[in-house]
Amino acid sequence: MIIKKSEIAGLLDQLAKEYRVYAPVDENGNIAFKAIKEGAEAKLGENSKKPPKEILFPQSEELFNYSVNQEGLRMDSKVDDTKSVAIGLRPCDAKSIMLLDNVFSNDQYQDVYYLARRDNTVIVSLGCNRPSGTCFCTSVNSGPFDTDGSDVLLTDIGEAYLVEAITEQGKELVGKLNLPEADAEAKALAEKAKASATVASEVDLAGLKEKLDGMFTHEYWDKLHEKCIGCAACTYLCPTCHCFDIEDDAKDCEGCRVRNWDACMFPLFTLHGSGHNPRTSGKERFRQRVMHKFNYFVDRYNATACVGCGRCIKNCPVNMDIRQVLAEIKAQDTGSEVG
Amino acid sequence: MDRNNPYLPIPMRLVKNFTETEDKLIHTFTLEFVNKEDEENFKYMPGQFAELMVYGKGEAPFGIASSPTEPGILKFSVAKVGVVSTALHLLEEGSIVGVRGPLGNWYPVEDLKGKNIVIIGGGFAFTTLRSTIEYLLDPARRGDYGDLTVIYGARNPGLLLYKDELKKWSERDDINLVTTIDRPVEGWTGRTGFIPAVVKEEAPSAENTVCIICGPPVMIKFTQPVLEELGFTPEQIIMSLEMRMKCGLGMCGRCNIGSKYVCKDGPVFTLAQLKKLPNEY
Ligand SMILES: Cc1cc2nc3c(=O)[nH]c(=O)nc-3n(C[C@H](O)[C@H](O)[C@H](O)COP(=O)(O)OP(=O)(O)OC[C@H]3O[C@@H](n4cnc5c(N)ncnc54)[C@H](O)[C@@H]3O)c2cc1C
Ligand code: SF4
Ligand code: SF4
Ligand code: FES
């Protein structure tokens, strides 16, 4: 099937009658995923600066509100299960959701807030015809037309998008739209787009995890962090980073409990009540970020917590480049190291 | 209320706000379940913790000081250090607080059956050890375990927690209780000296024995070699760690040591397990 680009806005308006529709929109010059009111707001060609994780895991979210008195307490939790469609995620970003699933639905606990959104959101992603210079998705088990995590994949074929439904949910959604079948030419154009999309940069991850196993005390970390200013842009903008803080916003006996994105790059993140801090300097914090993504997450969930979107490279104020860091790690001598 | 939502606390009533130590910095709170149903669902073991919520102030993790053998209540001993702990200290009896848990793993009391147990505690980290001792001394269980030795130290007598329990335990002959304070004080009849030295003097046998140790990091650091000298292997030494925590569910990413989350995979680890993890705690 195909969708003409000129008809996208109208189709999104149609979908918006039944679903909440998330799409990349321009927010004061930054592209971010937001629930749109009109199809015309969607900026589909643009890759978002803010990762789409905020669709399922908002930057700031009320978990419940409450009031208390001597008799007891009242609590209202807000689980958002609105039927939604998220359109325009890049395949790397769609894949990042599968990584987040591990965290928010672990062997013991289910995060009802994330899962309610997750279960009720159809992911329509858009393949990358021209990956940017900072992308390295093919090095981390993804690719510009990878379908992991997508319910529907769109491919830009010029005047139109080729539409491929990947999952049952995707088929159901596409079925509602009465789209014209794709002709042979459209299919050929899509094949061509897929074949010619090249991801310029590569990182060789072979053996990286094992290398990191023996690098916790390596002197490499001593210097690496020095130029990092600890702004945490790399973590806030990373589609797979999921750390959060929980706070009460309350006056007297009424209030609400809120969770907000947080980051391991901040010194207070691990400060104990006693004043002790296991990650006292930028060294430990930078090491934690790298280790968590490329070593600890692999141990725990058997996957690298990076999809190669390049956001941390593009947006770091001091030009820290994770590709270079990984290459340097691979080049380190760890002969005499013990974990 | 949605029981499947691990973020929602249950209501409990503060029935006792007891000033535990002479310096007044530690209070012990006794809480009663408001709903019978919550009481039935709250199944915990010694060593687990819970998030205590003071409405309007937030929540913080505290070890459960009561034992499952004391039904109907939960106890927590809390040092006044910041927002939530201070708010707790100021609460009037009868107030409602929120409790989220039980969280984390526990001392492996099931696996310890048939063994002698040495419990070493320092400072106010004694909370979950109180739970453990009460559990082991339960008449229905005491026979499952061999000798029980408890070595517990504080800076001075006024800082010892659970004075009533200490008295009760010292009168029993199925527990060897040794209390110690740093320096001699008039009227003190227990030991004086630091915990590592007292452990050395007591010299518990490592044979068929497991040691549970909980206290400030320096205390653990200096006691560990003494235990190793006595023949305790890293598998025989069990500890409980503290980390800054928020979710308690292995999601917020705050409390990890390597690939382990202390809130979920811990807080209880054997020294053997810790030796395999990066030294970042
Ligand atoms: C498994 C576990 C079990 C525990 N058991 C117990 C127990 O049984 N009893 C007990 O008393 N404690 C226990 N703790 C410790 C307890 O959780 C902390 O003391 C508690 O979180 C303090 O909460 P608070 O809101 O009172 O302090 P907070 O207000 O969060 O702060 C306490 C201290 O943290 C530091 N701090 C926090 N934020 C900042 C900031 N923005 N800038 C600078 N410094 C800051 C300061 O040193 C401050 O005094 C346990 C912890 C864990 C993880
Ligand atoms: S680490 Fe960087 S490149 Fe990898 S997913 Fe996160 S932001 Fe993208
Ligand atoms: S974006 Fe760059 S400077 Fe900021 S915390 Fe990340 S690595 Fe450091
Ligand atoms: S406290 Fe959130 S992961 Fe452990």
What's a quick, concise take on this entry?
The complex is a heterodimer of chains A (339) and B (281). Chain A has twelve helices and eleven strands. Chain A has helices spanning 5-18, 53-56, 91-104, 112-119, 168-175, 184-196, 208-213, 220-224, 233-236, 282-301, 311-314, 322-331, and strands spanning 2-4, 20-27, 30-35, 60-69, 72-77, 84-89, 121-126, 152-156, 160-165, 244-251, 254-261.
Please supply descriptive tags for the structure shown above:
heterodimer, A: alpha/beta, 4-stranded antiparallel β-sheet, 12 helices, B: 281 residues, binds flavin-adenine dinucleotide, binds iron/sulfur cluster, binds FE2/S2 (inorganic) cluster
How would you sum up this structure, described in words?
The complex is a heterodimer of chains A (339) and B (281). Chain A has 12 helices and 11 strands. Chain A has helices at 5-18, 53-56, 91-104, 112-119, 168-175, 184-196, 208-213, 220-224, 233-236, 282-301, 311-314, 322-331; strands at 2-4, 20-27, 30-35, 60-69, 72-77, 84-89, 121-126, 152-156, 160-165, 244-251, 254-261. In chain A, strand 2 (20-27) and strand 3 (30-35) form a beta hairpin. With 281 residues, chain B is an alpha/beta fold. Chain B has helices at residues 36-41, 83-89, 127-137, 163-170, 195-202, 217-229, 271-275, and strands at residues 10-19, 26-33, 49-54, 58-63, 73-79, 96-103, 116-122, 148-154, 176-181, 191-192, 209-214, 237-240, 256-257, 260-261, 268-270. In chain B, the strands form 3 sheets. Chain B has a 7-stranded mixed beta sheet, sandwiched between helices. In chain B, strands 4-3-6-1-2-5 form a 6-stranded antiparallel beta sheet. A two-stranded antiparallel ribbon of chain B has the order 13-14. In chain B, helix 5 (195-202) runs parallel beside helix 6 (217-229). The longest helix of chain B has 13 residues, at 217-229. Chain B starts with 9 loop residues before the first strand and ends in a 6-residue tail after the last helix. Chains A and B meet through strand 4, strand 5, strand 10, strand 11 and helix 10 of A and strand 4 and strand 13 of B. The structure holds flavin-adenine dinucleotide (FAD), iron/sulfur cluster (SF4) (2 copies) and FE2/S2 (inorganic) cluster. Flavin-adenine dinucleotide sits between chains B (49, 60-63, 77-79, 81-85, 127, 242-243, 245, 267) and A (268, 271, 273, 275).
